[in-house]
Amino acid sequence: MTVKLKDIAKHLNVSVSTVSRVINNRDRVDEKTRKRILEALEEFQYRPNEVARSLKSKTTKAIGLIVPGISNYFFATVIKGVEAIARQHGYHLILCMSDEDKEREGEYTDFLLQRQISGLVVAIVGREAGFFQKYKNLGIPVVFIDNLPDIDDNFDYVVIDNVKASRELTNHLIHIGHQKIAMITGSLHESVSDERLEGWKKALTENGIPINKKWVGIGDFKQESGYRIMQGFLQQAELPTAIVAANNLLAYGAMQAIMEAGLRIPEDIAVVCFDAIDFIGLIKPQLTSVIQPAEDIGTIAGEIILRKMNQTKMKVFERIMLEPQLEIKESCGYSKQADKK
Amino acid sequence: MTVKLKDIAKHLNVSVSTVSRVINNRDRVDEKTRKRILEALEEFQYRPNEVARSLKSKTTKAIGLIVPGISNYFFATVIKGVEAIARQHGYHLILCMSDEDKEREGEYTDFLLQRQISGLVVAIVGREAGFFQKYKNLGIPVVFIDNLPDIDDNFDYVVIDNVKASRELTNHLIHIGHQKIAMITGSLHESVSDERLEGWKKALTENGIPINKKWVGIGDFKQESGYRIMQGFLQQAELPTAIVAANNLLAYGAMQAIMEAGLRIPEDIAVVCFDAIDFIGLIKPQLTSVIQPAEDIGTIAGEIILRKMNQTKMKVFERIMLEPQLEIKESCGYSKQADKK
DNA sequence: CTGAAAGCGCTAACAT
DNA sequence: ATGTTAGCGCTTTCAG
User: Cβ of A76 and B79 within 8 Å?
Assistant: First the structure.
């Protein structure tokens, strides 16, 4: 049996409230009794029961986290960011993986709500977020990352400007001489895929390059999907000279297909993508890509939650768009092309 | 304000206990009142407060998880395994990252304890586990993964036999003709590093190959460390023809150093390691390595916790050693060597 | 079959 | 300065 407040109190012939006071450093307590209590606390290795505290204080100091999975380096890094902030403030993380499953996402939402979490950071699967209303009603702060819901703009989020990032990535290709640029993206039911496709279109249009629908591949953010789509491109009469992939796995798949077809990267076909975080440095050719500031996304999301928790007026929303970093490596062939600026 | 049992009871002019009964499907309740209650529950969108339930039931259904970090694919996958089991049983995960810091590990231990977790899965940083005694006293099941504490054998764990795995990995090199085999491992304060070094020694000794202390590099499981140690090897008069690295990052670092020195892998120096989970398939040459069944480690750890929770006698310990998989790829040069069997 | 009441461990008025 | 007591929201005897 673990020792509780009452045990300490009884042992010292004082009241539980006095003990509670010294534990929480509240009010005045006589120095002598304080000392005695402190000693007993130590002697009995007393540790407050946080469940009881939570029930009383109505705050669990738990931050719920719903992500598709953590094998993805991006999400692993975001979580690392949230964890850092949480730890600094005595909060903890309840980790839930939706595994790209809408239903599971909904289940976890209810689950976390019942567990009285103090805040939620979520990367939703689709573009709907009906569940969010519940949180709003309860006054629990929710911060969206990655995909954004397709509702009004009245919510907090931390993302990058995907349209802009994709546009710049594509513009880089155009800038170094490419005209025949294909796009491989994920499901258009996700804002991220959709916006990256949008940025690609924008760049082409702005540069007077017609959009070739045959060069748009819609997949699912997995390597297999990039591979398959690229194979499709390769079977067409006219080949693109460059590929924009909406994430790293799609790019890896495309690269496989290109290399298997006996073509060279970037000489025959250039490849660029999002989030090619090659911490290994051994993938050849190294991928030119737009890198999201994943850890910052996590820390900022955490900070927003903490901030919102201590304010009653939740109507002011923080809509954070961070700047991604364009990292030019080998796969775009930049160094081998003339700079036409 | 969220709706509670009392509100429903009052609304229906029944007692809270009756409402509680239908929620938990306990005892007999008149069909009519049950129906009325069920409807009200639905109407008011009642959701039980799990904190209150936990206080009463003295079980939180929370599994604590302490790992160095989740950027490491191995841990990310272990967690995925634990999550699957937890979810199936209505448990949830509290994720803590020690960041390889002993002190932080200890803090999180206390932290989780106060939060009344039902069980703990932990990858300890060093080999000590003084805190473990606390858990033993409280009757909370703890399962160790990865590193094992340097105490008696009276605890539960799920690991692989590192000595054996490392011995087999090294034997594979010897088998295909190598004699000059160097070892790069992590801190010997960790059982994992130590055992992998042990296995390497064993293989050499068994094959009558003398152990050259100059070919033992002690690093810290990071890529930088592998790079630095390999550079040291390369400066010596005699070069090894093969390297055994205790994890993937050490191997990547070594590969960098080898390639920078203008040497080829595996022609000049072969490289093998642990856990080269190359889900990308683009790292060249592909690494021969011993792969730990990470997801299984997670699920089994989760299952042990659930099992132990429902039994009072905690004295019987589950010591699970899973079989890793030796994956022969390109980096050992197998296909280019004659099989001397 | 249903209700009243105790209590999980703690905090915070309120009283002394 | 310290003690008494009423809950936090729920489950569970124990009566009725």
Answer: no
